[in-house]
């Protein structure tokens, strides 16, 4: 009988939680203790935005700002670029709130090679000074590196099955993340980010990214692509279908985040919609990214992050991208994906 485990370490000691053995073909990974500190099943909400007295920062202007980009959506949500926020002010506000932030990443198969770069640079740039737990889902916990972690930051390792297709890894993320939120993460976090592990942080990724539901503009389609040309799922048979005359932006599924319970709803939605598609022998064109875009079209994000919040080392940096905060690394897909290919 095969067993599964969860390992937690904070840079030194390692603790292990036992996992229920499989009771069907794909076992559920879960912690064998009840959640006791769930914050009211969705009661977490940002409170009054209090700032400490005496904080020094430049006076904001009501007339001057970025003129080369749009900084607000047509549903009046912030569209965040460098130069549209003051990091001193926003970090001070959120540090007083002191939220717990979960980062969910999957490192299955040969993707474990990307863990070190992601985690080490995350410790330099991702919500530095905040409480962060990296939830690493992997089929080889022995390859999770020991990283020097800051105060209040830790890594939790959750074992999951291997996959024969990279598409199955992508689709499986929604299943395993749904289960892990229900069984463990819900009692340990206020915000949750889903991120791709084959990425490296290069600059500040701070509290300006936090909101009830934050989505990131895909670098390939934010400039002038018409909505009918977005790579949405266009087959009506799929649950991810979006008609050609609808759409706001095209969002990446490589970085997205929000309140824990709002993210749970979205992650579970992507999982359940994918399952419905599978029953009808169809797979959305871009797997969970297609379902993500369908959800966000009709459930608007409360904050849209520019492509600064996920660029790619394959692409030249555009003039309006003043800072690359995190970027996907160049890799040989044939070598790292179980079934190769793009």
UniProtKB/TrEMBL annotation:
Signal peptide feature range: none
Residues that bind UDP-N-acetyl-alpha-D-galactosamine: 106-108, 111, 196-198
Protein name: Globoside alpha-1,3-N-acetylgalactosaminyltransferase 1-like isoform X2
UniProt-annotated location(s): Membrane
Lineage of producing organism: Eukaryota, Metazoa, Chordata, Craniata, Vertebrata
Catalytic residue list: 289 (nucleophile)
Pfam (any one): Glyco_transf_6
Organism this protein belongs to: Stegastes partitus (bicolor damselfish)
GO biological process, one term: carbohydrate metabolic process
GO terms under cellular component: Golgi apparatus; membrane; vesicle
Name of the gene: LOC103365124
Membrane topology label: Single-pass type II membrane protein
One GO molecular-function entry: hexosyltransferase activity
Family: Belongs to the glycosyltransferase 6 family.
């Amino acid at each position: 009988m095969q067993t599964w485990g969860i390992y937690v370490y904070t840079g030194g000691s390692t603790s292990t939680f036992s996992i229920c053995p499989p009771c069907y073909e794909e076992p559920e990974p879960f912690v064998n203790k009840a959640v006791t500190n769930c914050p009211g099943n969705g009661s977490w909400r940002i409170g009054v935005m209090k700032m400490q007295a005496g904080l020094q920062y430049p006076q904001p202007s009501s007339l001057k700002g970025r003129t080369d980009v749009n900084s607000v959506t047509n549903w009046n949500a912030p569209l965040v670029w460098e130069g549209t926020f003051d990091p001193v002010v926003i970090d001070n506000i959120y540090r007083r709130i002191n939220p717990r932030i979960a980062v969910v990443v999957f490192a299955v198969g040969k993707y474990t090679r990307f863990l070190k770069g992601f985690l080490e640079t995350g410790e330099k740039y991702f919500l530095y000074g905040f409480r962060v737990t990296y939830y690493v889902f992997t089929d080889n916990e022995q390859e999770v590196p020991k990283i020097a972690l800051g105060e209040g930051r830790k890594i939790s390792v959750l074992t999951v099955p291997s996959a024969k297709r990279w598409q199955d890894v992508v689709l499986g993320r929604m299943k395993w993340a749904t289960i892990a939120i229900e069984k463990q993460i819900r009692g340990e976090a206020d915000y949750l980010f889903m991120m791709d592990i084959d990425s490296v942080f290069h600059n500040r990724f701070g509290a300006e990214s936090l909101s009830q539901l934050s989505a990131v503009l895909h670098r390939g389609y934010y400039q002038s692509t018409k909505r009918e040309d977005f790579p949405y799922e266009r087959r009506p048979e799929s649950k991810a279908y979006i008609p050609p005359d609808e759409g706001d932006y095209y969002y990446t599924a490589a970085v997205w985040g929000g309140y824990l319970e709002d993210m749970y709803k979205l992650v579970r939605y992507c999982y359940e919609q994918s399952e419905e598609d599978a029953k009808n022998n169809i797979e959305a064109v871009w797997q969970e990214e297609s379902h993500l875009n369908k959800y966000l079209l009709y459930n608007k994000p409360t904050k849209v992050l520019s492509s600064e919040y996920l660029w790619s080392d394959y692409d030249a940096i555009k003039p309006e991208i003043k800072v690359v905060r995190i970027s996907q690394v160049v890799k040989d897909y044939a070598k790292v994906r179980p079934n190769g290919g793009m």
